[in-house]
Design a protein that fits this description.
Membrane protein, transmembrane helix, Diverse_Substrate_Transporter, 12 helices, single chain
């Protein structure tokens, strides 16, 4: 398989796993009494535990630039927690469309300005299709109590995601070829950042604790340890803007799980929005398949 296409597939699989995590998190909010910041912390903590076991068994040690690791870890903490806060303040519809709509735009512009990545016409078209699809997908949702504050949190979340993507892409040499170690260390930073806020919110489940921790373990393994490792692998061979579009598979995955597991019904706008998102992703993957990424490898220092 062509490396660029393989990287695109890895990022797409990561996005699907993240969508599964969103549905599980929503179940936890309703059944366990645990809040979004606490869920984010436990997700990171269980992911760290799983990755530490794997890394210990591998007995592999790599040298990495810890400054880059810290920046990525802070970015992870910001964009995950800010997204949940956006939903709480502005509602699911506004929070989702603002965050996921801003992500590919910020990443594409950042990639063009800071990484000198060529912004292909295919990528611009895919971004436009994706934003239209997101608007349809979340249309009709309720607006939360503080939409302006929610919008600001959404933009903060998108900026955090853009930072993670651009830094991981630019400094792939400095974080090395061991993507398990990268995921482990960046989430260790994220967990430290999230811990005080999780404690303030209420860190332990207040109902159905045993089942809650089963779901939290799932979040640590699939949408965290596995998904982010694949994401960092994929970023070696796809541009930042392409990765941002592929990540839009996350709401499609979440919608599919909501229909299949939670019995939610699809509206016409949701069907049309999903179709547009899939069209954007297919357009992007075909672009990755048709051309090689022409970008010199980063140099040390």
């Amino acid at each position: 398989m062509h490396k660029a296409l393989q990287g695109a597939v890895y990022v797409a699989v990561a996005a699907i796993a993240w969508g599964m995590g969103g549905v599980v998190a929503s179940v936890l909010y309703r059944t366990s009494g645990i809040g979004p910041l606490a869920v984010s912390f436990w997700r990171a903590a269980f992911g760290i535990a799983v990755l530490a076991i794997v890394q210990s068994a591998r007995r592999k040690s790599v040298r990495q630039n810890h400054k880059v690791i810290v920046v990525i870890g802070i970015g992870l903490a910001v964009y995950q927690s800010a997204y949940y806060l956006s939903i709480a303040q502005a509602g699911v519809a506004v929070g989702t469309v603002a965050t996921l709509g801003a992500c590919p735009v910020m990443v594409a512009l950042g990639g063009r300005l800071f990484l000198r990545e060529r912004l292909a016409a295919r990528t611009v078209l895919a971004i436009g299709i994706a934003v239209a699809g997101l608007a349809l997908l979340v249309s009709g949702g309720a607006v939360g109590p503080h939409p302006v504050a929610g919008l600001l949190w959404a933009l903060g979340s998108a900026a955090g995601y853009a930072t993670v993507t651009l830094v991981a892409r630019e400094y792939a040499y400095h974080i090395g070829q061991d993507d398990i170690a990268t995921t482990l260390k960046t989430f260790a930073v994220a967990a430290v950042c999230l811990l005080p806020f999780a404690v303030a919110e209420g860190i332990f489940p207040t109902a159905h604790a045993e089942m809650a921790f089963v779901w939290l373990l799932f979040l640590g393994i699939v949408p965290t340890a596995v998904a982010y490792t694949l994401f960092f692998v994929g970023l070696r061979t796809v541009t930042a803007s392409v990765a941002a579009i592929l990540v839009l598979l996350e709401p499609v995955s979440a919608l599919a799980m909501a229909v299949g597991l939670l019995g939610e019904r699809l509206t016409l706008s949701a069907i049309l929005g999903t179709a547009l998102l899939l069209a954007a992703v297919v357009t992007t993957i075909r672009g990755s398949q048709m051309r090689r990424i022409q970008r010199p490898a980063p140099h040390p220092g």
